[in-house]
Each structure stands twice: as structure tokens, then as C-alpha cells.
Design a protein that fits this description.
The complex is a heterodimer. Helix content of chain A is 42%, strand content 15%. By secondary structure, chain A is an alpha/beta fold. By secondary structure, chain B is an alpha/beta fold. Chains A and B meet through helix 2, strand 2, helix 3 and helix 4 of A and helix 5, helix 6, helix 17 and helix 18 of B.
């Protein structure tokens, strides 16, 4: 499947994107996208955690190893964290995470951070649409299990 | 403590290993919301093939009585010990299904809720096949996670039976009065020197056109008199800490520069004060002194000295017979402990000045409706005579422009809801006062949805108020007469019209109040894209917030008219009473847990925790010589930030353990099942 998709990314191949969402903001944003019927590609699989601060690099690496075409780290806007400042810590952690992922040779489009509030349904939908388009352009993850020894 | 933890942990571990997982999966069609897009039967059939899934069921409405009965019956029939519900958002119905399985003797945390409506069917309406595939993935993720779920106990916290109400407009006052009448101690904090809020400034209120301050005034006095209400005017909330049932709040009392216990509100000080500044209560029309009583019906009826404009001439101190003036007053602070907080922080009207909407700020004879309101008011700057600012003449031809700062992509897209009605009311009032006047209301749509509103609309038409559907496209001032010349398309007649008015009034919409951002951050609330605060659920929990014990009333959560704001004030009081009366609140059982066998005492987690919920044990653990981290469950809010930061993996977050999260990550991908 992956070779097929690589040769012709427009043949209906849908990337698989793992989106980590915090319970209070970005998960609510995804809900709001639903309530507002903001249509988006069926690429994202949302995993809910209580706070973006809970998102462990372990979770992100595992997602890539399992074959995620992209991994999204999302949370509340800075200053709006339900737990005072969990997202500040996410921001710091994310910098390191980004460096490691780059060093592994994974394209920058495949790991993205975004702050989305519970009311920003349209923003959530646009984010998923944008990321999906970017990933469709660069094709499936080089770490797809078929390619991993 | 550490003993406790290890048995706790081991206890659940043992249980987890022993028990065979028997999962029941209930796929909801939500009428056609899900069923119309996702092939629910295909999802159920596929999920039924997964190991551990003993039964699957598709329901039209799983949340209905029959749907819940189906879950309970299947739990019994198949001896299920895990339940997966694939339906809407856990924010809507997780509590429903938790209660449902708990009734059958299952731990409520054995429920896994999968969102296949908001996150699937609603956002992939035109891609039925892809939506079905995605739903299969999502439910598979949920099933695998459910097998790893562990039992938890929700904990009970005591609730202090006192309430804090922020904002003493009509909504906040209603909340405070209702709670006080039920016998609870209420602290009512108002940032302005007087309570009353925006309603105190209105002249008359629609649809009955009764005098605003005449109906509000007695309520204000009642607030001040009520023994259970501690009124803190000219005060602001500076810090909020704690959680439902036990909020610690710091209130700053801004200095009035006079002793309120001595001041009698006689306003002798104002009489002698030589400084005059624009009177904000009259929307900048007329002046007030630097030391002044906010308005004649102010509660508390006390003066306030505006230090910014004071020239320190000390005339007021000499004039004050009770010796109340104190120029050296400093801000003071009060610490409160309350069980619930009601935010009624109000609104302000849209300011058309910066954008010069419809020429406002460029031409004198264009004013806002709030300014018009003060001109109409008998206690206003002109004693109730509506005059135009350029020459103080009483206007004959008055134009009203609706939807200024509302229903406009350039400002606010939402409808403020009240402007049609107040414009109709304002036109009526002036028409009644001076029948020779001529009124034209330029509108997009006229919206009069509530009781007696349409009747008021009809009444204004009968009085001769003209309605013109269209927005001015050009506004100019005649340099000689200072009249306003408007070019407007009459969209019903399909022609351009050139109109001339002596005065034009802009119906400015409702926008978030100043300081709403600060309150949002203090209370940890969510703000919507329009800048207003978010309720927990737009329909079913309109006054609750996502923060337990915090409620919202009035325009802080969206434009509202007075009856709606008052209802919300009462609704908040009712919701708050549930907690105050029960004297206890149930909090989530989700917390961080330390495995002392793995912890090396590095204390990284301690620096991560914003709630100071992690402490180092006082004595070394067993014979290791190392003091281990210890989570104080009562303080832990269960965010899991410490867990992600722990370098040794000694910390886990219950209900979001690494293996539970990773089970979801792994099951995003289909080939997993091939491998397995």
C-alpha cells in the first residue's frame, strides 16, 4: 500500500494521523468542529489525555514506530491551561521532542504543535485539513512497519 | 502512607492480571446523527471479532432508557466487566453511562467512551466509507484501552457553605439575593464604586417601558440590607486558588480615599471640588467632580475620590463635616474561603469610535444608543431632553442604525439580541415624548423573539416609527446645518434612498467586558472565539462551566436581555445550592500515583506540579535510604504533567496510564490486528 501511495499520493490514500488532545481545550475544539459540522479529512485519530502536559515523548515515539504519518500535540492556549501551566511545560518538552524527531530524519511536517481552545472548532478542522494536505504531499511515513526492519 | 500506596497498587495489579476481560460494545446511532453516516452494523460486526469482545449491540439511542436497559441487561447476561460506548462526546454523556454501569455493580471507571459522532460522523458527512473505517479504528482503540482500565474511587470533598459572586449587575445581584434568601453567606464583589451594573444606566427597559432604576433600585437596596450578603464594592478579585468546595480567594479593596463608615453620601465634597471631568455614568456627557457620588441611587451611597484627577487642593476635606476624607488610604485585602463562585462579570457596549463606524467620532450628531439612553433619562445630563451634541437643539428627524458591532464580519459576527428591541423602545419613547419627531430605523432583520416583544414592535409601527431594511452605505455631514446625510439602499423596495437626519443613533452591540480575560484566567475558564466565556454545555448546562463549583450568569457568556440575565442569576444560585446544601462534592478519582520501588527521589515531579500536590516522604523508603515522592491525593488534580516528566517511570496517572494510552496509540493502526 505504501509504495502505491508513494508513487501516486492522490489515489485516495488517507494518511493516519495520531492527534493527542487535552480534555479541556483541544478535545473540546474537536467536539466544536463536530457541532459546527466543519468537514475535515478522515485522517485524524484523537487520543484524549487530561492535559497536554501528560503527553509523554514515549507516546509520540510509539505513534511513529507504529506507523503514524503524523503526530499532533495539541492543548490549551498559553495562559488558559486548566492546570495553571501544564501547556508551558508541553511547549518546553516539545522543543526537545522536535529536535529528536528531526535527528531521526522524520520530516518536520510529521510532528506539529498547536493550541486550540474548546470553542475553536473551525481552527481544529482547518488544522487537520492543512496537516493532511501537507502529509499527502510528502507521502506515507518512512517508518511504516513495512519499511522497518 | 507509602505502605498504603503499594498495597493499593498491588491490589489493583493483581486484580487486573487475574480477571478475564469480558467487553461489551454498544454502538449508538444517535438517530441519524451517527447512523446516517457511519455503517454502525458494520462497525459492530467488525468489533465483535476482536478478542475479549463478548457482545456488541447497536442502538438507535444508547442514552435512552431502553438503550441503558440494554447495557444493563447485557452486563448481566454476559457477565461483562468492561463496557465500551461508542456514541457522542464524553462531555455529553460519560456521567450518564458511568452511572448506568455502576448500578450494575461495575466500577464506573470500567467505562470507555468513544466519540464517533462529534469526531467522526459529523465531520465526515460526505465520506461514509471513510467515516465507517475511522469509526472502526476509534472503537478498536477504545476496546483495547478498556481492557486495561483499572477500578478507581471518586473522592468526596467537603464544601464550604459560602459563595462568592463576582459582579453586582442585575444577574449577580439576583444570584446573591437568592443564595442569601436560602440562608447561605454570600460575598458580592463589584469593581465599580456602586452596584447596579449596566442596568442602572438604562432609561426605560423594553418591552414594558418601565423605568429601569425604579425596578432595579429596590433590588440594590435589598442587596445592601440583606444580612447574609457581604457587599464589597470598589473591589476586585486578585487571586483564586483551590477547587470546588474550597476556593481561596484574595479580594483587593481599592482605596476610595475616604472612610465609608464616616461618609454619609451628602456630596458636600463634590460641591466644593474644583475639578471637572467627563461623567462616565452619563457616557461622557456632562461632567462630574474628582470626588463624587457615582449616581443618586448608588449603593452604597458613598462618595469616591478619583485620585487620578484630584489636584490635592484639600477643599473636600475641609467641606466634609464627618471628617471622612483620607488622602493616604492604601488598598486593603481580604482573604475568603468559599465553596462556589458565580461569575457575573457583565458586558460593555461596542465602541464604534476607533473604526468610525457610520461616521461615529467624525460627526458630532452621531451618537450611540447608550448615549441616547442617558439623554432620554430624566436624571441624565439634559434632564430628559434629547438634544443633538452639535448645537443642543432638539432633533426632529432621528435615524437609527441597527447591528453596529454585531452581525458584521469586520467586528462581531454574532447577533447581540437586544439591539432591535432597545432601538424600537428608544424610538417609541422619544415619539411619545415629542410626537412631532420622525423616526427611521435602518435594519438588517428585526428580531423580536420573546414575550411581548413583537407587540412592542407593532406598537412602534402604530406610533409611526418607520422601518427601512438596509444599511447606510454612505454617511456625510452637512457642513452648514450639521445634519447627517445618509445614502441607504431600501432593499425591500429595491431602490437607493437619500435621507437626512438631525440626529443619528447607532445600536451598538454587546461585547466582552474589560477584565473578562483576567477573570477567565483566574477561574481557569475557556474563552470562545467571540471573547465571551464558555459554558459547560450550550443547552444542558448553560450556567455551569467546565470547572466544578464555578458558574456563569448574565452577559459574560453571551449577549442576553434582562429577563434572561435574571433567570441565569437565579439558575446559578440553584445550581450552587446543590453543592452548598449537600456540603460535599464528588471529584474525579483520577490522580497521579507513585511506585516507590521505582522512584529515585529526584524531585523533578515536585517542580512540575502547579498544585504542590507532590511532597517528599519525611523518612527514607524501607531500607533504601532514599526519600520517595508522595502524591497528596486531596491536592492532586490529575493533570499527569508530573507523569510525563518522571525520568524513571515511577509515576503513573490513573485512568491515563502509559499502557492505556499506548493501547490506543497501537490500535490506531490496522495491521496490528494482522500481527496479533
Amino acid at each position: 500500500m505504501s509504495t502505491d501511495a508513494k508513487s501516486n499520493p492522490s489515489n485516495g490514500w488517507e494518511p493516519k494521523i495520531v492527534a493527542f488532545c487535552c480534555n479541556w481545550c483541544s478535545y473540546g475544539g474537536a467536539d466544536s468542529a463536530g457541532m459546527g459540522r466543519f468537514q475535515q479529512p478522515a485522517s485524524a485519530r484523537i487520543i484524549r489525555v487530561m492535559c497536554s502536559g501528560r503527553i509523554d515523548p514515549l507516546h509520540v515515539f510509539n505513534a511513529f514506530l507504529e506507523g503514524a504519518d503524523a503526530v499532533l500535540v495539541t492543548g490549551c492556549h498559553i495562559g488558559d491551561c486548566h492546570y495553571v501551566n501544564g501547556n508551558d511545560k508541553t511547549k518546553i518538552k516539545y522543543k526537545y521532542l522536535e529536535n529528536v524527531v528531526r535527528e531521526l530524519g522524520i520530516e518536520k511536517e510529521r510532528l506539529q504543535l498547536n493550541w486550540i481552545s474548546a470553542s475553536e472548532g473551525e481552527k481544529f478542522a482547518n488544522f487537520i485539513r492543512d496537516v493532511t494536505a501537507q502529509i499527502k504531499k510528502i507521502g506515507p511515513s518512512p517508518l511504516k512497519p513495512e519499511g522497518v526492519v | 502512607m507509602s505502605d498504603n500506596k503499594s498495597t493499593d497498587k498491588k491490589g489493583t495489579d493483581v486484580k487486573k492480571d487475574d480477571e478475564e476481560k469480558r467487553v461489551g460494545v454498544f454502538v449508538c446511532e444517535c438517530g441519524v446523527n451517527i447512523g446516517g453516516v457511519v455503517n454502525t452494523k458494520a462497525v459492530a460486526d467488525y468489533i465483535g471479532t476482536l478478542p475479549g469482545v463478548k457482545v456488541t449491540s447497536v442502538n438507535k439511542f444508547t442514552c435512552s432508557d431502553s438503550g441503558q436497559a440494554d447495557i444493563q441487561q447485557k452486563i448481566k447476561e454476559h457477565n461483562l466487566n468492561r463496557v465500551v460506548v461508542a456514541a457522542c462526546s464524553p462531555k455529553t454523556h460519560e456521567p450518564t453511562f458511568r452511572a448506568c454501569i455502576e448500578q450494575m455493580g461495575l466500577n464506573q471507571y470500567f467505562l470507555e467512551f468513544v466519540n464517533i459522532r462529534d469526531h467522526c460522523s459529523w465531520i465526515h458527512m460526505w465520506e461514509k466509507e471513510k467515516a465507517t473505517e475511522k469509526a472502526k479504528d476509534l472503537v478498536r482503540m477504545g476496546v483495547e484501552r478498556s481492557k486495561l482500565l483499572e477500578p478507581l474511587q471518586a473522592s468526596e470533598v467537603p464544601v464550604t457553605d459560602k459563595a462568592l459572586v463576582i459582579g453586582a449587575g442585575v444577574a449577580g445581584m439576583q444570584s446573591a439575593l437568592d443564595l442569601a434568601d436560602m440562608g447561605f453567606q454570600v460575598y458580592l464583589v463589584e469593581k465599580e464604586p456602586s452596584i447596579g451594573g449596566r442596568m442602572a444606566r438604562f432609561d426605560k427597559v423594553f418591552p414594558t417601558n418601565d423605568c429601569s432604576i425604579c425596578i432595579l433600585g429596590p433590588k440594590m437596596v435589598e442587596v445592601a440590607r440583606n444580612k447574609n450578603i457581604k457587599l464589597m464594592s470598589y473591589s476586585e478579585v486578585k487571586a483564586v486558588d483551590g477547587y470546588v468546595g474550597n476556593f481561596n480567594v484574595k479580594i483587593e479593596h481599592k482605596p476610595r480615599y475616604l472612610d465609608v463608615t464616616k461618609c454619609t453620601g451628602c456630596a458636600k465634597c463634590s460641591e466644593v471640588c474644583p475639578v471637572e471631568v467627563p461623567y462616565d455614568f452619563n457616557e461622557g456627557f456632562g461632567t462630574r467632580k474628582a470626588v463624587y457620588v457615582p449616581f443618586p441611587q448608588a449603593v452604597p451611597l458613598r462618595a469616591v475620590l478619583d485620585k487620578e484627577n484630584c489636584i490635592n487642593c484639600k477643599a473636600c476635606a475641609k467641606a466634609c463635616q464627618s471628617g471622612a476624607i483620607n488622602y493616604d488610604m492604601q488598598p486593603s485585602f481580604t482573604d475568603l474561603n468559599v465553596g462556589v463562585i458565580i461569575g457575573a462579570v457583565g458586558f460593555k457596549t461596542y465602541d464604534p469610535e476607533p473604526r468610525h463606524d457610520f461616521g461615529y467620532g467624525l460627526y458630532d450628531n452621531i451618537i450611540t444608543a447608550m448615549e441616547f439612553e442617558r439623554l432620554l433619562n430624566a436624571a441624565g445630563p439634559t434632564g430628559g431632553h434629547v438634544v443633538r451634541p452639535s448645537d443642543c437643539k432638539e432633533p426632529i428627524r432621528v435615524g437609527f442604525v441597527n447591528c453596529v458591532g454585531s452581525r458584521d464580519k469586520n467586528t462581531n459576527i454574532y447577533c447581540s439580541g437586544v439591539c432591535c428591541m432597545y432601538t424600537i423602545k428608544n424610538a417609541q419613547l422619544l415619539k411619545e415624548k415629542r410626537p412631532e419627531t420622525d423616526h427611521t430605523i435602518m435594519y438588517i432583520d428585526i428580531r423580536t423573539p420573546f414575550r411581548a416583544y413583537e407587540e412592542s414592535y407593532n406598537r412602534s409601527r402604530n406610533l409611526g416609527v418607520k422601518f427601512l431594511r438596509g444599511r447606510p452605505v454612505e454617511v456625510k455631514e452637512d457642513p452648514v446645518t450639521r445634519n447627517i446625510k445618509v445614502r441607504v439602499e431600501d432593499t425591500l423596495a429595491g431602490e437607493m434612498r437619500n435621507l437626512e437626519f438631525d440626529l443619528m443613533v447607532l445600536a451598538t452591540g454587546i461585547v466582552p467586558n474589560e477584565g473578562i480575560g483576567q477573570i477567565q484566567q483566574l477561574l481557569k475558564l475557556s474563552k470562545a472565539a467571540d471573547g465571551l466565556l464558555m459554558e459547560a454545555h450550550p443547552k444542558l448546562k448553560p450556567v455551569d462551566t467546565t470547572i466544578d463549583g464555578v458558574f456563569l450568569a448574565g452577559c459574560a457568556s453571551g449577549p442576553k436581555d434582562i429577563p434572561y440575565a435574571v433567570s441565569q442569576g437565579s439558575a446559578c444560585a440553584g445550581r450552587a445550592t446543590i453543592l452548598l446544601k449537600n456540603k460535599k462534592a464528588i471529584t474525579e478519582g483520577i490522580t497521579a500515583v507513585v511506585d516507590p520501588d521505582v522512584c529515585v527521589g529526584c524531585q523533578v515531579c515536585i517542580s512540575m506540579c502547579p498544585f504542590q500536590a507532590i511532597k517528599l516522604d519525611e523518612t527514607p523508603y524501607l531500607n533504601t535510604g532514599i526519600k520517595k515522592a508522595n502524591v497528596v491525593k486531596a491536592l492532586c488534580k490529575g493533570c499527569g504533567t508530573c507523569v510525563a516528566a518522571c525520568p524513571t517511570g515511577a509515576l503513573e496517572q490513573s485512568h491515563f496510564k502509559n499502557n492505556q494510552v499506548l493501547a490506543q496509540v497501537k490500535n490506531v493502526f490496522k495491521f496490528q490486528e494482522v500481527v496479533a
